[in-house]
Amino acid sequence: MTKRKNLFIAVTTAIALTLSIPIAFAEPGINANQPQTKAIDAKSVADQHLKEHASKYQLPDDLSSLQFVTTIDTEAASYVRYQQVIQGAPVFTKQITVTVDRAGKALLVVSDYVPFNSIEQMKSKISPQEAESKALEYIGGANKSKWSSASREFGYVIEDGKAIPSYRVVVKTNAPADEWDTYVHAGSGKLLKKKNRVQYATGTGKVFNPNPVETQDSTSGLADNRDADSTALTNQLKSVTLLGLDGSGYLRGQYATISSKAKTYSATNTFNYTRANDSFEDVMAYYHIDTLQRYIQSLGFTNINNRSITVNTNGTTADNSFYSPATKALTFGTGGVDDAEDAGIIAHEYGHSIQDNQVPDWGQSAEGGAMGEGFGDYLGATYEDALTGNDTFGKACVGEWDAVSYSSSNPPCLRRLDENKVYPQDWAGEVHADGEIWSQGEYEMAQAFGRDVATKLILQSHWSLTPNATFNDGAKAIKQADVLLYNGSHGAQIDAIWAARGISTQ
Question: For position 26, what pLDDT does the model report?
Answer without folding.
Answer: 36
